[in-house]
């Protein structure tokens, strides 16, 4: 078990350093790291501190958030097909962002787009909680999430549909693909506080999620307060996924695939999977963001496109493996 | 010592009265068989006692906070839910969750309870197998072991021996009777009246919207009660092998 965590942590650290060293500006490894830490004059410190560092930091933060919330959501719903977007947060965050782009709010103010996306996420999750009811089952949560996701997707399409400005429409489509290109420390500063709150809510859920392995009734009889747990899960997921979507757009498949891959390696225990999946998510997003810079550096391949392209076949493989194990 | 006191408990689900006016006291040392036909409310009665379903009246378990209640009473639901492919040992160790502060690992004492529970259900050889790949009866034994590992004064189990082979049914009933002899109490809903008659110290017969009979097996399994509540007649005798009960025919 320790070995799994150690391997993931080492991989994460190695990819983080690699993410700092890869980019269109030709900066040597030693020179780059020195410029990053010591600063100084010239283009190298600027590139390292203002472009590559925020990008690498965001990859770690977003990966951590998606992996962690995916593992928590699967653990709570006791379903390996669950993913953090299920409760409609990413859909409603995207709607908020799209409205900001369409109205020009995002062009007028640097914080306009991420804040508008966050407002969308909060509104969406408040609606989901109101719809699902305070004491409802996990089923009502899923249904409410599906309804809100569908609503947000429809409204997003409506905005695109009515957009008279082809450039805005273009920008909306590209934004929705999800990317970490051209992000700054402002985005890190905006997302980090919310994500820290979300991590602090989700990580302690492990014990309750373990108990839920035995079903809701048994967990409740073991002292797990399910109503409170569900609220913490939904609000925590909204914080991390809302913040991630607000700064990077929709990055799919990470929250779905990473817990799935790591589950056998941690003995399927939901509490251990939370930590492993957080690290694994960071590894996956770091690796994917490196890949978009290495594969087609001049074409600005979108991160969300790549995670889906890699994630979907991986998922198919997992389904195939599961199918063979079933009678 | 009274481990569970129910006073005038009543449950309505969707406007339909399941049962009403249920009062009972379960003392340390008792192995109570909760019997009754399908739909009599056996499961609902136990869930109401645990506060898992809204009820009128009073259950002494609800005087505790949820966390303390989990150290007083263990509950094995009828649904054999095992969501993830965890090892048998890890599953049984979940019974220790109420005793562990958040994030703490199993202590030697916790491990001893887990080992004892595995031994009691004859699962030592399966310790490292994946729980979801076991047969239904084996899974039931693992889940009973999980409840045993919780090490509570009161154990409540919903049809714990359904789906077990005869040897394991008898062994499980003996484990429960042994817990009662050690000064704990067990309440188990049962459909096998023969096993109930042999092993339980007391039977609670649920039917007709309340408790029909309450007492030692011989006083509860009377021809009159069986005809009224179960619509069967039966052969029941004290033999050199102990009490033997066998249902015979349905009474039209």
Automatic annotation (TrEMBL), chain A:
Its main location: membrane. It is found in: Cell membrane. The chain crosses the membrane at residues 53-73, 85-105, 111-132, 139-164, 184-205, 231-262, 274-296, 303-320. The keyword Nucleotidyltransferase does not apply. It comes from the Bacteria. The keyword Transmembrane applies. Keywords: Cell membrane, Membrane, Transmembrane, Transmembrane helix, Transport. GO terms for molecular function: transmembrane transporter activity. SUPFAM superfamilies: ABC transporter involved in vitamin B12 uptake, BtuC. GO terms for cellular component: plasma membrane. InterPro entries: ABC_BtuC-like (IPR037294), ABC_transptr_permease_BtuC (IPR000522). It is a multi-pass membrane protein. Belongs to the binding-protein-dependent transport system permease family. FecCD subfamily. This is Iron ABC transporter permease.
């Amino acid at each position: 078990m320790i070995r799994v965590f150690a391997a993931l942590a080492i991989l994460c650290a190695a990819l983080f350093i690699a993410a700092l060293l890869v980019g269109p500006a030709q900066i040597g490894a030693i020179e780059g790291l020195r410029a990053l830490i010591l600063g100084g004059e010239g283009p190298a410190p600027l590139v390292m501190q203002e472009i590559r560092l925020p990008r690498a930091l965001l990859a770690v933060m977003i990966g951590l958030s998606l992996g962690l919330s995916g593992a928590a959501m699967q653990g709570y719903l006791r379903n390996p097909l669950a993913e953090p977007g299920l409760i409609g947060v990413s859909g409603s965050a995207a709607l908020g962002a799209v409205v900001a782009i369409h109205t020009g709010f995002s062009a007028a103010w640097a914080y306009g787009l991420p804040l508008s996306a966050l407002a969308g996420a909060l509104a969406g999750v408040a609606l989901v909680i109101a719809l699902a009811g305070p004491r409802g089952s996990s089923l009502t949560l899923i249904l409410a999430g599906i309804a809100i996701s569908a609503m947000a997707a429809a409204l997003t399409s409506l905005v695109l549909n009515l957009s008279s400005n082809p450039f805005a429409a273009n920008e909306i489509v590209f934004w929705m693909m999800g990317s970490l290109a051209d992000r700054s420390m402002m985005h890190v500063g905006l997302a980090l506080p919310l994500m820290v709150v979300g991590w602090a809510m989700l990580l302690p859920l492990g014990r309750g999620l373990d108990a839920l392995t035995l079903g809701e009734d048994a967990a409740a009889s073991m002292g797990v307060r399910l109503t409170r747990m569900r609220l913490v899960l939904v609000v925590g997921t909204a914080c991390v996924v809302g913040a991630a979507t607000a700064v990077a757009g929709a990055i799919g498949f990470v929250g779905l695939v990473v817990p799935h891959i790591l589950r056998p390696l941690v003995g399927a225990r939901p509490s251990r999977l939370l930590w492993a999946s957080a690290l694994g998510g960071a590894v996956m997003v770091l690796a994917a963001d490196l890949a978009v810079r290495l594969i087609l550096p001049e074409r600005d391949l979108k991160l969300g496109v790549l995670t889906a392209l890699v994630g979907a076949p991986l998922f198919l493989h997992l389904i195939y493996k599961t199918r063979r194990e079933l009678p | 010592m009274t481990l569970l006191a129910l006073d005038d408990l009543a449950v309505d689900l969707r406007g339909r009265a399941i049962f009403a006016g249920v009062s009972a006291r379960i003392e340390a040392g008792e192995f109570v068989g909760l019997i009754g036909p399908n739909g009599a409310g056996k499961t609902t009665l136990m869930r109401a006692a645990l506060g898992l379903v809204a009820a009128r009246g009073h259950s002494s378990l609800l005087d505790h906070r949820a966390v303390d209640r989990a150290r007083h009473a263990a509950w094995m639901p009828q649904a054999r839910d095992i969501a993830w492919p965890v090892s048998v040992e890890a599953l049984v160790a979940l019974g220790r969750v109420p005793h562990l502060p958040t994030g703490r690992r199993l202590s030697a004492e916790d491990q001893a309870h887990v080992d004892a529970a595995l031994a009691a259900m004859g699962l030592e050889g399966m310790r490292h197998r994946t729980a979801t790949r076991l047969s239904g009866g084996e899974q039931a034994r693992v889940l009973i072991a999980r409840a045993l590992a919780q090490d509570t004064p009161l154990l409540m189990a919903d049809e714990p021996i359904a789906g077990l082979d005869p040897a394991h049914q008898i062994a499980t009933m003996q484990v429960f009777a042994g817990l009662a002899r050690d000064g704990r109490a067990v309440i188990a809903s049962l459909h096998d009246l023969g096993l109930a008659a042999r092993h339980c110290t007391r039977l609670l017969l649920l039917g007709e919207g309340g408790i029909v009979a309450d007492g030692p097996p011989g006083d509860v399994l009377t021809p009159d009660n069986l005809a009224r509540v179960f619509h069967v007649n039966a052969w029941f005798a004290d033999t050199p092998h102990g009490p033997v009960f066998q249902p015979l025919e349905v009474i039209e």
